[in-house]
User: Fold this.
Amino acid sequence: MVSIGGGGLISGIISAVKHFSPATRVYGVETEGANRLYLSRAANKIVELPAITSVAESLGAKKTGIRQFEIITKYVDDLVVVSDDEAIQALLELLQEEKLLVEPAASCCIAALTTGKIPVAKNETIVAIMCGANVALERVVEWYEAEKCKVS
Assistant:
């Protein structure tokens, strides 16, 4: 699983993975409000978003390049979209359970797993690319407090 901004990271990863292990499935993950590749693939053409509205700001490329679009369309097994709330919930769970602080652009991959949007077989090995550190602690505290209010 790889979160998708402009498409460069997943294009490089999938080129290597499919070369060395063609049977390995690769999923791209985006958040609502930054899901231009999901929309582009569905439209079978590059779609430009008018604005990026997701908290996963580093996924905020309004448009992807032609080459990245071609690689993703041809080789990515599926693209899934998670909500900002799902990405934030996964971020907080990673922080509490694993002591890992990642940005929503990375936690969206875990959200795709925990919400069942990416199918996982029993005993299957899963790799989630956790990159990026674009998160302010103040925002994490806000999200944590908001999550506590939802539970109470």
